Amino acid sequence: HTVSPSLQGNAHRIHFLENFKVVLEMQDPATGVKLQPQRLVITTIPHAITGEDIVAWLADRFQIDAQEARSFGSMLVALGYIYPIQDHKRLVVKPDASLYRFQTPYFWPTQQWPVEDTDYAIYLAKRNIRKKGILELHEQEQYNRLHKWMNHKWDFIVMQAKEQYRAAKERKKPDRVVFDCQERAYWVVHRPPMIFTQQSIMRPRVKSSVSIGALVKYCATYKGHDPFLSKCLPSNPWLTDDVTYWALNMPNVEIPTKMRVERWTFSFGELLSDPRGRDDFRLFLKKEFSGENLAFWEGCEDLKWGTAATMKEKAEQIYKTFLARGAPRWINIDGKTMEITVKGLKHPHRYVLDAAQTHIYMLMKKDSYGRYLKSPVFKETMKKAVCPEEHKFSDSQLEQNARNRRPSLSPIIIRQQEQEQKAKMAASAPVDITQVMSKLSKQDFQINTYRHIFDIFGNACFKI
Amino acid sequence: MACQGLQKGETLESLKRESETLKKKLEEERNKLNDVELHQVAEKVEVLSALSIKTRRVLKGHGNKVLCMDWCKDKRRMVSSSQDGKVIVWDAFTLNKEHGVPLPCTWVLACAYAPLSGLDNKCSVIPLSLDKNENLAAKKKSVAMHTNYVSGCSFTNSDMQLLTSSGDGTCALWDVESGQLLQSFHGHTADVLSLDLAPSETGNTFVSGGCDMKANVWDMRSGQNIQSFESHESDINCVKYYPSGDAFASASDDATCRFYDLRADREVAVYQKDSIIFGASTCDFSLSGRLLFAGYNDYTINVWDVLKGTRATILFGHENRVSRVRVSPDGTALGSASWDSTLRVSWSFSTGSNYIFRFIKLLFWVNSRLVLEFTVAF
């Protein structure tokens, strides 16, 4: 199985792409974690392991420090490959004599079963049969809820529960204890206790005058842009059957309208969510040599909302381009955030870059955005922006417009064009520098060389 | 089978009492920061000039109730689903039908531009193609699987993830390509009827509403229920975020729509009238958030002034229940779907100076009281 070195300067550190391979190694009778029996009153349950042994084994196997090993171990517990026997609700590895056991592969997350409410109902009913009063408060709530509206199949559920209970009784006691623990552990992972009213009471709130004030202000700010409250310029296409308004406001139009540019000044979010606005901002950042921030943010968005299959690959690419020491588009984030992020990237998930992304977003919002609004790039765009005259159609012209209604380019074609554009940009590999240099004029040579190299190399390194 | 398993010293009564006490405490905490009401702040806001909104496009083609519709990003195309078992893609501007997909399940309850879901417990994604002869239904890809009907669905920021709400009381996030369940959301105690994603700047949350009369706000990353509002008196049929993402509205069978402020963590307005006694099934905001369009089971669409709490105008035209209203992506028009098998598109006439004259005449005929307001404004 391929293993990819993703940390520069530490060749023997390995980035694991599939957790269960680790777990199999850990269970090897010769080289795995030391097994010991667990004493339960008069019974002895075999194959238990201690937290400290787990940590030691991981630290030795991957040559990492105890803290990292503990964090990795806790992740295996959180996912359900290993489960705690004693403090079964806290899904972490404690670096002491606390006991754990390997979960049976039947219950591994890699099986990717849909976690069915029916199974959970059967499980709760079965525990109820075995011993009344054993369900905890959140389990009782779940049980009542499931009973209420799985009522139509409750007979089936009770029958299944009784069957399973009867079958379990026929097992030997140690096996039964082990299985009960495994099953309980599985459900702790998949049906954790829900939020209670108590937590709601403690959540932070804002004064009404502040939050309501903000809502009212939003309406006032956008009133001029709301076609139900103010005129569209040149006219609302639905009203006059003239599509100029739509043509002028295409997503990637060269020259935007004044109204559109005005919206970019309302908030940083508005600027970023408009593709034309984002392009303008990108141009400004290029001139300030801080384009990597936006590129990183875009990479994070792509990771978060992208398809699961490409996630790990994308996370690695982002690490190589923006976070690794000496990376071509290294981003400047504080030490603590960098530490959390790099650690998280060893076992990447969709939201692993959240902390770093938020940090960079706030940096752009509080610093670059303000400067952008005062910059020559923005002023130039605003100056060139069009402000169309209001249409004044006569009745006969309106009738003509209605007759001339035409279909527009299908969104399918537009999407195909966008895909082709993206593919082209991604395919442009680092260019031969001599080709670039020969195009430059002698006078601008020095300044432009550095700028161009940065642009091309930067663009090629991370294109989504 | 009665509830079993109370712990020592507890009775159902004591548990119920404890729950009530906690709920009261929560209300107390919420009220501590309640230093002003929405209508008080709204007094300083200028009155809206009289609205004239007309329906001028009627899309006919479905053979039965239209249950759902949604706009395409291009601002003029729409998709609709109907009890006749068909999903149609329209260019609402030219009234052309562009695609028609027949489906095996007749109760197609929800469709977003591409994913659709219904009473067969599945949610499918249909990739659209330009080839008119292509059998689109055959390319349908099943993505989501619930244990009960799927009531609502929405793509996230890209079209590679899908969020669904279901009659099984849960919501779920799916990876479209693999069909893998990424996260599930548990907390509703009855069918979830509707969901809406927060506008992108405000992060990774969504709101859901259900038959348990609750509206819940969720964190997509952890699956946690982060806020809950329980003030409706009947099923919540629709939830929709305010454009800033700091508030949301709900439409309910109790004939009211309500407005919730997320930062203050409370309900701040109730939109109701004695003359409105039928349930509201759907709602959506205009671009600025000042207007709330709500479709009702009495065949009308009421347009509410969100800040002042009054009704700005009412739209007639549909001949049966209004099942869905949606403002177009650039805010220029309102699309509505109905059990009368049609879809309609409406827009404002009062913001086009060509129409002032006709506007005066119409208003005078509809409601003489409005003429007074109108002449004062002009």
Automatic annotation (TrEMBL), chain A:
Xref: Gene3D superfamilies: 1.10.1240.60, Regulator of G-protein Signalling 4, domain 2, Winged helix-like DNA-binding domain superfamily/Winged helix DNA-binding domain
Annotated InterPro entries: DEP_dom (IPR000591), G-protein_gamma-like_dom (IPR015898), GGL_sf (IPR036284), RGS (IPR016137), RGS6/7/9/11 (IPR047016), RGS6/7/9/11_DHEX_sf (IPR047017), RGS9_RGS (IPR047077), RGS_DHEX (IPR040759)
UniProt-listed GO biological process terms: G protein-coupled receptor signaling pathway; intracellular signal transduction; negative regulation of signal transduction; regulation of G protein-coupled receptor signaling pathway; visual perception
Main subcellular location of this protein, as a coarse class: membrane
Domain DEP per the UniProt entry, residue ranges: 29-104
Pfam families from the UniProt entry: DEP, G-gamma, RGS, RGS_DHEX
Keyword field contains Membrane: yes
Topology of this chain in the membrane: Peripheral membrane protein
Annotated compartments: Membrane
Keywords for the protein's UniProt record, in alphabetical order: Membrane, Sensory transduction, Signal transduction inhibitor, Vision
Domain RGS positions: 267-382
Manganese recorded as keyword: no
Descriptive protein name: Regulator of G-protein signaling 9
Source organism of this protein record: Oreochromis niloticus (Nile tilapia)
Lineage start: Eukaryota, Metazoa, Chordata, Craniata, Vertebrata
Automatic annotation (TrEMBL), chain B:
Example of a GO biological process term: signal transduction
InterPro entries registered for this protein in UniProt: G-protein_beta_1-5 (IPR016346), WD40/YVTN_repeat-like_dom_sf (IPR015943), WD40_G-protein_beta-like (IPR001632), WD40_PAC1 (IPR020472), WD40_repeat_CS (IPR019775), WD40_repeat_dom_sf (IPR036322), WD40_rpt (IPR001680)
Keyword Endoplasmic reticulum set for record: no
UniProt key word Repeat: yes
Source domain of life: Eukaryota
Residue stretches of each WD repeat: 59-91, 143-184, 185-228, 229-270, 315-345
Alphabetically ordered keywords of this record: Coiled coil, Repeat, Transducer, WD repeat
Coiled coil: 9-39
Stated family: Belongs to the WD repeat G protein beta family.
Protein name (record): Guanine nucleotide binding protein (G protein), beta 5b
Encoding gene (name): GNB5
